[in-house]
Amino acid sequence: MIVLAGTIGAGKTSLTKRLANHLGTKAFYESVDDNPILPLFYKDPQKYGFLLQIYFLNRRLQEIKDSFSNDLNVLDRSIFEDSLLFKLNADMGRATETESDIYDSLLHNMMEELPDQRHQKAPNLMIHIQISFDTMLKRIKKRGRPYEQLDADPSLYDYYKQLNERYQKWYEDYDESPKMSINGDRYDFVEDPQASREVLAQIDRKLESLGLK
Ligand SMILES: Nc1ncnc2c1ncn2[C@@H]1O[C@H](COP(=O)(O)OP(=O)(O)OP(=O)(O)O)[C@@H](O)[C@H]1O
Question: How far is the CA of 157 from the centre of ligand 1 (A)?
Fold first, then answer.
């Protein structure tokens, strides 16, 4: 499977749709607007941080299992990014070190490959969409999910800034599968059809180099 990665508002969902369409495969989305824990988490991160992670972990593993049938199926978010978000939350005092350690050990245990399994759980390719902090703020505002807005909670500014900064290092350290990065500032694949074609061509070249296409 191919997984998309990137910060809030990077365009993972949009690129998932375009890429699956282009490859003629199935797209798997995590519905954000139907997530019952997310608004609770934004209201009280300390109380709901751990529950939210377990909710996501469960959903993302389900997606991985559901998408096994084709190596080119596309998932709108990687399971590995959640750990980055949770660590940030732990560092901001919204989760304890014990919760963070237990989460990491559970993730590791769930993702461990078994000797004779027919399909690997790790993705075949991870595509990171990189955007600047400025673009991230603009996208969050434009999309307008109420609980994500800075007007409602100015302390989110620091959260978003740190999150954006940590993504670059996360991408550099990521070694669960082959990977590539898309410049989401330069290529506005949502609004600009030419940029969209260029991004899909970049991904095609990578898939070809991996023997997946
Ligand atoms: N592991 C996590 N811990 C805390 N919050 C999370 C986690 N994963 C997602 N979220 C929250 O869920 C919401 C949706 O984030 P996500 O990046 O998955 O989708 P998105 O913003 O719609 O992405 P895109 O615009 O790239 O499609 C955001 O408010 C984000 O902060």
Answer: 15
Tally the domains of the chain.
Answer: 1
Q: Which domain holds residue 85?
A: 2-209
Q: Mutation test of ligand 1: which of 32, 88, 189 has the most ligand atoms closer than 8 Å to its C-beta?
A: 32
Helices (H), the chain: 12-23, 38-43, 45-66, 81-91, 97-111, 133-143, 156-173, 193-209
76 catalytic per annotation: yes
pLDDT one-digit tens code per residue, 34-45: 899 999 999 999
| CATH number of domain containing 69 | 3.40.50.300
The residue type at 207: L
Q: Return the bridge partners of 181, or none.
A: 128
Ligand 1 binding pocket includes 3 (Cβ within 6 Å): no
pLDDT digits (tens, 9 = 90+) for 139-152: 999 999 999 999 98
pTM score of the predicted model: 0.93
